[in-house]
Amino acid sequence: MAVTIATYTNAGVNYTPTQLATALGSAFIDSGIMIDWYASFTSGSNQVRVLEVIYDPTKAYGKTYYIFIFSGADIFVTISSGWNTSSNIPAGPTGAGTQYLDWFSTTISTTNALRLTASTTAGFNNAQSATVRRYTSTVRSNFSVILIANGTTTISFFIERTAPNPSMVDLSKEFYTSMFWPRVSRFAATAQVGFQLFPMRTRRTQLGSSLRSVTDGGQFGNYNLAVSPWEIGTDDVFFLMGCECGFIGNDSNFDNNDRFTRRVDLCPNRFSNTNPEYPANVVTPYFNVPFNCYSSAVLPGDFAAGALYNSNTTQTNATVQITPGVEEYEVVAVANADTLGRPTAFFGARTVGSPT
């Protein structure tokens, strides 16, 4: 079956932080990740909303709190292992918790959080409307992707709710972060689609063991001037990047057809001009691929990572027709090739047909 899609547009021109918070909250509620915000309050001119994600309620650190701060046109996010509902501050799961272990700071401000809503080309601007779009899998109902668009700036992300692999993450001693974004990129004649964790972490997360004596907010993934790809440290990509699909080039006599910028799992596309056993090119999107080694979850069959060799002007929300009327996708994220005929990377939600 195709995904379920809904759009939340109550964050119109000159939208307020409250309107954007309401739009994102509605998308979260309809995705089933929450019934309502775990906490909702005002801090100065900012609107703060807290999302509780339960990975394993039987474990001491089986819950993670994603703290969203809506300020001006933008959204910022940080994490904690617990939440004090009386004082509306980060906490531990059974008490106040400890700074740098359970939370970075109890002061809720944009300076103590990661800016979510900015790309390398533009930030959000509330002189134009913001649209929140939700894609929910019908193959696996607990998986949804959120796309936030403001003019030509688009940000997509998802929180994978499957409990982590216990051999990798011990929820009796540490808490877990699983907020990803689909990273699409291209280089020379190749393209890549992967899944990268956002950098928010504390010493008690699965990502935080290196933070011995560190107190700098940026090293905890809290940077209020961040832009995608949200790599605050120079080595972030090496341990935040999960599984990545690599798509080869098909340029004639070109040694960059298999040159990638990061390690990839090569996703075979077949070309008749290299293997005459194929009378026509076979270019297939891939699904059921894992996100990373922390979780057993895989990309459900109604979402796909793929490459297009017949377009280098594809836009977000465009329709990709693999087989018209049989297999079609809406583009959630895209990185266009520099030349037509080279692969354009895309991450898409299936709108027509059912995965086999």
Secondary structure layout plus pairing:
Blueprint lengths: L3 E8 L5 H15 L7 E5 L2 E9 L8 E9 L2 E7 L1 E3 L4 E3 L22 E2 L14 E7 L7 E7 L2 E7 L19 E9 L2 E8 L38 H5 E7 L17 E2 L36 E6 L10 E5 L3 E9 L8 E9 L4
Parallel strand pairs: 14-15
Antiparallel strand pairs: 1-9, 2-3, 3-4, 4-5, 5-8, 6-7, 9-10, 10-11, 11-12, 12-13, 13-14, 16-19, 17-18, 18-19
Count of distinct strands: 19
Q: Strand order, biggest sheet? A: 1-9-10-11-12-13-14-15
Rg from alpha-carbon coordinates: 20 Å
Q: Topology as H/E string?
A: EHEEEEEEEEEEEEHEEEEEE
Mean pLDDT metric: 93
- Beta-strand proportion: 25-35%
Question: How would you characterize the overall build of this protein?
Answer:
The chain has helices spanning 17-31, 236-240; strands at residues 4-11, 39-43, 46-54, 63-71, 74-80, 82-84, 89-91, 114-115, 130-136, 144-150, 153-159, 179-187, 190-197, 241-247, 265-266, 303-308, 319-323, 327-335, 344-352. It is mainly beta. The protein has a domain at 4-239. Strands 1-9-10-11-12-13-14-15 form an 8-stranded mixed β-sheet. The protein is globular, with a radius of gyration of 20 Å.
Could you list some keywords that capture this structure?
356 residues, single chain, mainly beta, globular, 2 helices, 8-stranded mixed sheet, 5-stranded antiparallel sheet, 6% helix
Overview in brief:
The protein is mainly beta and 356 residues long. The protein has two helices and 19 strands. The longest helix has 15 residues, at 17-31.
